[in-house]
Design a protein that fits this description.
There is one protein chain. With about 240 residues, the chain is mainly β. The chain folds into two domains: about 120 residues, Jelly Rolls; about 100 residues, Jelly Rolls (Sandwich), CATH 2.60.120.10. The protein contains no helices and 22 strands. The two termini are about 15 Å apart.
Length: about 240
């Protein structure tokens, strides 16, 4: 097994006043040649948007974009005719494909909105753009990893154009897991949202991450009062 450890304080950071963002991988003005991607996982941004502020209309192409709200209400509008609000407990996917434009705003004036913006490189280009949004509350169970993204329509969660799976877990007790890769050759990027976890003898605290590949399973010890996100992607 090969691993890479990304501590929270080694991420890129940009504070624009209205936007406070931490970048796990090179993005915008943050460039680190050793932190370009993890396999097909290209972007993992940990964003805080001030009240009433947001991202004006901008384009995307040939990327699978997944948004996971952590706090607050995020207003999404796009040129496919979608105008929705996503909040904690939701997962949103936008397959940019041949091209799509959208905007994202914090619809509350007095509260921040916090969300993860994740980009996965698709296995095929120029697909028809699409949008989907679900609540994962009904499919989430405490003290286990719950599937929220997959390559297959009809499975739990949303689906994307890549052999990738996302799992989220909310743990209130010490729990030992063994993550099994869904596809040979894939790797998994474990991101600790809250609390702590231990993987391969390495202790991960809030917003730390560990990527692992060249293995079929990954033992994970999760601490109490912890939340984790596991992102499995092809490595090439």
């Amino acid at each position: 097994m090969q691993t890479v450890l990304h501590k929270a304080n080694t991420r890129g950071h940009a504070n624009h006043g209205w936007l406070d963002s931490h970048h796990s991988f090179s993005f915008a003005n943050y460039y680190n040649p050793e932190r370009m991607h993890f396999g097909m996982l290209r972007v993992l941004n940990d964003d805080v948007v001030a009240g009433g502020m947001g991202f004006g209309t901008h384009p995307h192409k040939d990327m699978e974009i997944i948004s996971i709200p952590l706090e607050g209400d995020l207003q999404h509008t796009d040129n496919m005719g979608n105008s929705t609000i996503i909040q904690q407990g939701d997962v949103q996917v936008m397959s940019a494909g041949t091209g799509v434009s959208h905007s994202e705003y914090n619809r509350n004036l007095a509260e921040d909105v916090k969300f993860l913006q994740i980009w996965v490189i698709p296995r095929e280009q120029n697909v028809t753009p699409r949008y989907d949004q679900i609540s994962i509350a009904a499919i989430s169970r405490k003290n286990q990893l719950n599937q929220i993204v997959s390559p297959h329509p009809g499975e739990p969660g949303v689906w994307i154009h890549q052999d990738a799976w996302f799992f989220m877990g909310d743990f209130d007790t010490e729990t030992n897991l063994k993550y099994g890769m869904k596809k040979p050759g894939n790797g998994v990027y474990l991101f600790v949202l809250e609390g702590r976890a231990e993987v391969d003898g390495k202790v991960l605290s809030r917003r730390d991450a560990l990527g692992a590949w060249n293995t079929e399973t990954l033992p994970i010890s999760v601490g109490p009062d912890s939340k984790i996100l596991a992102i499995e992607v092809p490595m090439a």
